[in-house]
């Protein structure tokens, strides 16, 4: 095998049915469609998973095309540093970057968390997400999940105060996080934040559309505010400081673990708190994000809990506690 042939790449589309429909302000879905990259070098195999997201102009086809566009470079031996220049931040680069981390760990015999400079990788508590619906439906879902320590509530604008009150009554002891997915309007911010404060909400995520969120800088809100759609990588991070208290780091946005770690460093230096999030995907997508969990105030890596069936070698969840990955999965 020649040097140019020693690494081989395979790309596959995989589908995971959801246990229940997943509904947010922008729509609903009943399955997670992911793209998985496998990089084989001699006897070692590294894998990475990403979720194409239409909100960011991505489709399965566009992500597959982007990955294929750098096949020659990857198979010729391009590393994670080179990858940052080959593709922009986004799902395609995420799958490749995480596959390269996994491959390096498998070849070297050094776990990915050690390669990242961590002293340990410990279990963490993840939020559990409730889809948006009627107050009655959300109350029923909250009652079923009331033993979970952290619930993340999807909201949609009109009727959110009633949804919040219903969830809080059904889950009186859970810490509540709110995700509006850009659905609120500037003129309604005060009413929405007051409803969140009454319900004892610990965090409001992305209340206004990205690029139209200047109203958040107008005053100090009674609940901390987290940027999601407004924060992808380090670009423009400083401009968010007057609007947001935390940023949600998702590997599909940053384009992989490499940029995610750099983003976390930059965000902390600017005074942001960290939230580690995910798309709805399998344990293969969650595993790399666990390397950031120890630094985060909030962790939302519940994707596999929303699936009808995860990967056979998936992460171990005990209630809302998620444990580090085994070598067979990743890293």
Question: Kindly, what is the distance between the CA atoms of the first and last residues, rounded to a whole number of angstroms?
Answer: 26 Å
Q: Please tell me how large the radius of gyration is.
A: 20 Å
Number of domains: 2
CATH evolutionary superfamily of the largest domain? Enolase-like C-terminal domain
How would you characterize the largest beta sheet? 8 strands, parallel
- Overall 3D shape: globular
**CATH fold title of the largest domain:** TIM Barrel
The computed structural class is alpha/beta
CATH architectural arrangement of the largest domain: Alpha-Beta Barrel
> Number of DSSP strands?
14
Give a written overview of the molecule.
The chain has 331 residues and is α/β, with parallel strands linked by helices. The chain has two domains: 3-109, 2-Layer Sandwich (Enolase-like, domain 1); 124-322, Enolase-like C-terminal domain (TIM Barrel, Alpha-Beta Barrel), CATH 3.20.20. Helices cover 31% and strands 23% of the residues. It has helices at residues 60-69, 71-75, 80-86, 91-108, 112-115, 135-144, 160-170, 189-198, 251-254, 257-269, 283-293, and strands spanning 7-24, 27-41, 44-50, 124-125, 128-130, 150-154, 175-179, 201-205, 225-227, 246-249, 273-276, 298-299, 317-318, 321-322. The strands form three sheets. An eight-stranded parallel sheet has the order 5-6-7-8-9-10-11-12. A hairpin with a 2-residue loop joins strand 2 (27-41) and strand 3. Helix 1 (60-69) packs across helix 4. The longest helix has 18 residues, at 91-108. The protein is globular, with a radius of gyration of 20 Å. It starts with 6 loop residues before the first strand and ends in a 9-residue tail after the last strand. The model has no long low-confidence stretch (mean pLDDT 96).
């Amino acid at each position: 095998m020649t040097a140019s042939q020693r690494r081989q790449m395979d790309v596959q589309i995989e589908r995971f049915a959801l246990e229940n429909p997943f509904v947010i302000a922008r729509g609903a879905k009943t399955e997670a469609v992911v793209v998985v990259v496998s990089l084989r070098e001699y006897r070692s195999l590294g894998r990475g998973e990403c979720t194409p997201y239409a909100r960011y102009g991505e489709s399965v086809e566009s992500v597959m095309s982007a990955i294929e566009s750098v096949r020659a470079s990857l198979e010729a031996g391009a590393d994670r540093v080179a990858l940052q220049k080959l593709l922009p931040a986004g799902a395609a680069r995420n799958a490749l970057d995480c596959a390269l981390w996994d491959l390096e760990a498998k070849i070297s015999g050094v776990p990915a968390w050690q390669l990242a400079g961590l002293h340990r990788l410990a279990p963490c508590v993840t939020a559990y997400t409730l889809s948006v619906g009627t107050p009655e439906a959300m109350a029923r879902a909250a009652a079923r999940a009331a033993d979970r320590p952290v619930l993340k509530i999807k909201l949609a604008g009109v009727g959110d105060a009633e949804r919040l009150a219903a969830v809080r009554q059904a889950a009186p002891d859970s810490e509540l996080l709110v995700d509006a997915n850009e659905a609120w309007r500037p003129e309604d911010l005060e009413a929405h934040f007051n409803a969140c404060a009454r319900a004892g909400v610990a965090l409001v995520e992305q209340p206004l559309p990205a690029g139209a969120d200047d109203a958040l800088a107008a005053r100090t809100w009674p609940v901390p505010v987290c940027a999601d759609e407004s924060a992808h990588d380090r670009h423009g991070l400083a401009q968010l400081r007057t609007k947001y208290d935390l940023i949600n780091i998702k590997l599909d946005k940053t384009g992989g673990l490499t940029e995610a770690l750099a983003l976390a460093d930059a965000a902390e230096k600017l005074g942001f708190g960290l939230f580690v999030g995910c798309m709805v995907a399998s344990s293969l997508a969650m595993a790399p994000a666990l390397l950031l969990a120890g630094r985060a105030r909030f962790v939302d890596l519940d994707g596999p809990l929303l699936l009808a069936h995860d990967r056979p070698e998936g992460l171990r969840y005990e209630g809302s506690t998620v444990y580090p990955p085994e070598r067979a999965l990743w890293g």
